[in-house]
């Protein structure tokens, strides 16, 4: 009889725990973090041209044969990866993007002048 009584409690607390875990994945303020895949090669930056505003994680994959990095400059932001990314390695950069245009490029040597640059357009969040 005690086991039958515990079963509903386990279900209620288990579902509550799942709901809490799902909510904790969202950053505070109700804004979900976006992830942007970035691929670096000699000499190109491949990633979406447009992303929504808000917390954003750039996953920077070096698919080239040389060492590269990733820098973003725009409204209120000038940030870059903490470490240079070696070939076949990945770096991560987390920022909060505001609507506007951003310059994205590899800041190593003359890589940007060889084509490792692009403009990223950040759009206002829908319904926000």
The biggest beta sheet is recorded as:
5 strands, mixed
CATH topology: Immunoglobulin-like
How many H/I helical runs? Answer: 1
User: Which regions contain 5 or more consecutive residues with pLDDT less than 50?
Assistant: 11-31
Into how many domains do the coordinates divide? 1
- What would you call the shape? globular
State mean pLDDT (0 to 100 scale).
82
Spell out the helices and strands N to C: HEEEEEEEEE
Give a description of the structure.
With 128 residues, this protein is an alpha+beta fold. The chain has a single domain (29-123), classed as Immunoglobulin-like, CATH 2.60.40.420. The chain has one helix spanning 2-24, and strands spanning 34-41, 44-46, 50-52, 54-62, 71-74, 77-80, 90-97, 100-105, 117-123. The model is unreliable at 11-31 (pLDDT under 50).
